[in-house]
Write a structure and sequence with these properties.
chloride, three-stranded mixed beta sheet, 24 helices, mainly alpha, ion channel, ClC
Length: 614
């Protein structure tokens, strides 16, 4: 596959002064201050998006101020045009219009907007701010109309996009720009959940791809600033306050409770994989239908609205209100109703994302995991003798299931563990959560291999599995490393003439072309002289000593692909062609030079990751 081109990033409207840029590039303190600014802006963006979506829901569904859509038991009769279930379809129509406008603005190239993970993995943290704002607006419309998508994807997109633009303004180094993008994402998640540790480790595990001392201070400062800004602007309790709830029965939680939590983690992993595949099947169904992309959200909205009308409004939107309901210990829900809600919410999420609504599965996975945890606590005693002797209460299993399901979808075992810790304040329960998320994460990685974000990259033909920086590897192409000062000889050149023109001691490899100037192979000069000496009076032809006629490199191959080609051909050097059809020779590359350049880049990346001077 040819390398993915970097997204077009326009020159910043404002360039920071030269001295200020130099200070930011050379000072860790400056990076921390810029991270704090990024965190504050990220918190503002989260507050603005959250307020906008709540306003939309209140207008479309005639909700009282502050009322959560998914906390309703029935759709309001006085909703949109007297039929509230049409609100998602209306939102789908607006979203389709926004998609058309965004496509028109991007022009004929129609490049997809990269998210923070892809930006850090392939583009050194470079993101389009305009594209990120487009995604945020689409996410607000999608969530505000009731589609079963979360806002976390929009939060991180716009905060990371702003961070990237700040970094580009200051002309930051690649490693520092990637860190700043992580700071934006950390601030967004910390602000969304009121959990700074969760936001910080979200950045470390999912956006930056690693944890180092050099990235600790800026990321944590950004997460704290984002969380504080939202608390100041919109004072409200944590997204789920379970600290005062009874997570355990009368008996103390001990190591024996790890066993059911491990089983619950495996169950959540299996269900999460089914959900991810379900989203893919819905997307494929819409593509096969040949329905224009802008009209797909309208149909998807009708399906989601109809599902809410037929089952419960708790399948709508992200599910904040419904999650509060099912984490309350006094709520008594039948096992059949719980199972039905799990199926309905999963179907609504798959239909929403599969039809083109913008958003992610972060909060939906938390809600589904809480439901699965409570369902597990109700079903397990029927099949597991002695299950009642374990110490966790149903609410405790809901917290464990919430984290295990979310880690299977989103990834980030420590992120979900810290989320549970900041929610509950209970270290014993957090230990059980850690065991469950490890079981879930390991199961998904070994059986499925992807989180939801990286699975969608895979469907697009990308090989990204994390935010580890591999963009430099793709940019280190054969075309950049090859020698261009080569003089091919024709295949019909007499051997004697060739030997006189290329005596021993001259360059040891000569590229050969045919009468149509097409690549024909490589002649090793020492081998040609040896063959001529062995045959005595019978001079061999040049074609007798040509090697690697079917092995060659292309200019857009990455260093990794080049190394594989050398191994496959068992060659120390290969010709570089402009195209496999024309076979015109444009250069020569040796394996030793390839490995040297690869080693140099690896060392440079290692030093950048450790925060050492370049």
């Amino acid at each position: 596959m040819s390398p993915t081109p970097s997204p077009p990033v326009p020159a910043p409207l404002l360039q920071a002064p030269v001295r200020l840029r130099a200070w930011v590039r050379g000072s860790e303190v400056a990076l921390v201050l810029l991270a704090a600014l990024t965190g504050c802006i990220g918190g503002l963006a989260v507050a603005a998006m959250s307020g906008a979506t709540q306003f939309l829901r209140e207008q479309l569904y005639r909700l009282p101020p502050g009322q959560r859509l998914s906390s309703l038991s029935d759709l309001p009769a006085d909703g949109l045009m007297g039929a509230a279930f049409l609100a998602p379809a209306l939102g789908g129509a607006v979203l389709g219009l926004l998609l058309l406008i965004a496509t028109w603005r991007r022009g004929k190239a129609k490049r997809a907007v990269v998210d923070p993970i892809e930006a850090n993995a392939l583009h050194g943290g470079r993101m389009s701010l305009r594209g990120s704002l487009d995604v945020a607006a689409q996410n607000v419309v999608s969530n505000g109309c009731g589609a079963s998508v979360g806002l976390e994807a929009g939060y991180t997109q716009v905060a990371a996009g702003i961070a990237s633009r700040l970094g580009i303004t200051f002309k930051m180094r690649r490693s520092d720009l990637r860190t700043l993008v992580g700071c934006g994402s950390a601030a967004a998640i910390a602000a969304a959940f009121g959990s700074p540790l969760t936001g910080a480790f979200y950045a470390f595990e999912l956006i930056i791809g690693t944890y180092t001392i050099a990235t600790l201070a800026p990321v944590v400062v950004a997460a704290l600033c984002g969380s504080l800004v939202v608390r100041a602007l919109a004072p409200q309790p944590a997204f789920v306050d379970v600290g005062a709830l009874a997570l355990a029965k009368n008996t103390a939680v001990d190591a024996g409770d790890t066993l059911p939590c491990l089983v619950l983690g495996l169950v959540c992993a299996g269900l999460a994989v089914l959900l991810m595949r379900g989203v893919t099947l819905v997307e494929q169904g819409f593509r096969v239908s040949r329905l224009p992309a802008p009209l797909r959200p309208v149909l998807g909205g009708l399906c989601v609205g109809g599902l809410a009308l037929a089952t419960t409004p708790q399948v709508l939107s992200a599910g904040h209100g419904a999650l509060h309901i099912y984490l309350a210990p006094e709520v008594a829900v039948g096992l059949g109703a719980l199972a039905g809600l799990v199926i309905a919410k999963a179907a609504a999420s798959a239909m929403s994302i599969g039809s083109g609504f913008r958003g992610g599965l972060f909060f939906a996975s938390l809600f589904l995991g809480a439901l699965v945890g409570r369902l597990f606590a109700g079903i397990a005693p029927l099949f597991w003798p002695g299950f009642e002797s374990f110490g966790l209460a149903p609410v405790g299993y809901a917290v464990v299931g919430m984290s295990a399901f979310a880690v299977a979808i989103v990834g980030g075992p420590l992120t979900m563990t810290f989320l549970a810790l900041e929610m509950t304040g209970s270290f014993p329960v957090t230990g059980l959560v850690l065991a469950s998320v490890l079981a879930s994460s390991l199961t998904v990685r070994k059986t499925f291999g992807y989180s939801f974000a990286t699975w969608r990259f895979h469907l697009r033909g990308e090989t990204i599995r994390s935010a580890h920086d591999i963009g430099w590897m793709r940019s280190l192409t054969v075309g950049r490393m090859m020698r261009k000062d080569i003089r091919p000889v024709t295949l019909d050149t007499p051997m004697a003439t060739f030997l006189r023109a290329h005596p021993l001691g001259s360059p040891s490899r000569v590229v050969v072309v045919d009468e149509h100037d097409r690549y024909a192979g490589i002649v090793l000069v020492p081998e040609a002289h040896a063959r001529a000496a062995e045959n005595g009076t019978e001079t061999p032809r040049l074609s007798d000593v040509v090697r690697y006629p079917g092995s060659f490199l292309l200019a857009d191959m990455s260093v990794k692909q080049a190394a594989a080609a050398f191994d496959g051909a068992e060659a120390e050097a290969l010709a570089v062609l402009d195209d496999a059809r024309s076979r015109k020779v444009i250069g020569l590359l040796t394996e030793s030079h390839t490995l040297k350049r690869y080693s140099e880049e690896l060392d440079r990346q290692r030093r950048a990751m450790l925060g050492e001077a370049a």
